[in-house]
Amino acid sequence: MSAGMAPVQAGPLTGTDPLADTDPFADGHVAIRDGAIRLGRGDAAFDVVENISFDIPGRQFVCILGPSGCGKSTLLGAVAGHLALSRGSVSLDGRAIAGPHPDRGIVFQQHTLFPWLSVIDNVAFGMKMKGVGRSERRERARALLAQVGLSDFAERYPAELSGGMQQRVEIARALINRPRVLLMDEPFGALDAQTRLTMQELLLDIWTRHRTTILFVTHDIDEALFLADRLVVMTPRPGRILDDIPLDFGRPRDRGLITDPRFTAIKQRCLALLHSDPGHVPLARLSPIGVPA
């Protein structure tokens, strides 16, 4: 484990769950129909994704895999409500997504924590914006910090944390709003390899507790296969769905999975899909708000 990285000491699955009063009928079902996104104006306009259609059943963990610049993060931005589709529709539990909303939490590759707020106040910030009292929002924030192994860092500030710890705070901050969907844009991409493995295991533990729908963007095949129930592979820009692969490895998962012959076979399949166009030149990566990342 990297220096400065606190060990994962998540609380037990029993006891108070800060998401316990989540609406059981709000399943987090995401649907995109004939989706297309075009960015820019005039001669500078370009198609980012086109002809995208898929369903994500509630509480499913889906990874989107594809080459840099293929529109993975842009698609995430449409589900978040930060970007409008040029054509088609995107909905959550049957209702059209028309803009950002707390029912969709988002975690970026680089942390967006407020440097002037303590860890606990960063996590509780969304509840503060809803008018929840200080005592209640701090209680919920502490419960989530316990689940991400940061109880002892509640009064620290972001600059005092390692990169992995900052991302743990981001996850807790996204979850405190009780989202139906958690959108994750290469959240571990900037971490060292060992910390990244630790964060993947932590994320699976948290998902087991809350079972919110997760849409996770990555360019790492091993990460996608280890985490997801299902893998959506995209073509180079303009991004289309190249393949949709169910991952029936069973849960819980551990690192022994990477030596499973089924894991290796699907990895080879993904590599073949991603390298089907040897002349392809990777394009600049865009963030979920449609600007260069």
Question: Can you offer a commentary on this structure?
Answer:
The chain is 29% helix and 20% strand. With 293 residues, the protein is an alpha/beta fold. It has 2 domains: 47-103 and 179-276, 3-Layer(aba) Sandwich (Rossmann fold); 115-177. The strands form 2 sheets. A 6-stranded mixed beta sheet has the order 6-7-8-3-9-10, with helices on both faces. The protein has a 4-stranded antiparallel beta sheet with strand order 2-1-4-5, with helices on one face. A hairpin with a 2-residue loop joins strand 4 (87-92) and strand 5 (95-96). The radius of gyration is 19 Å and the shape is globular. The model is unreliable at 1-25 (pLDDT under 50). InterPro entries: AAA+_ATPase, ABC_transporter-like_ATP-bd, ABC_transporter-like_CS, ABC_transporter_ATP-bind, P-loop_NTPase. Keywords: ATP-binding, Hydrolase, Nucleotide-binding, Transport. It comes from Methylorubrum extorquens (Methylobacterium dichloromethanicum). Its EC number is 3.6.3.36.
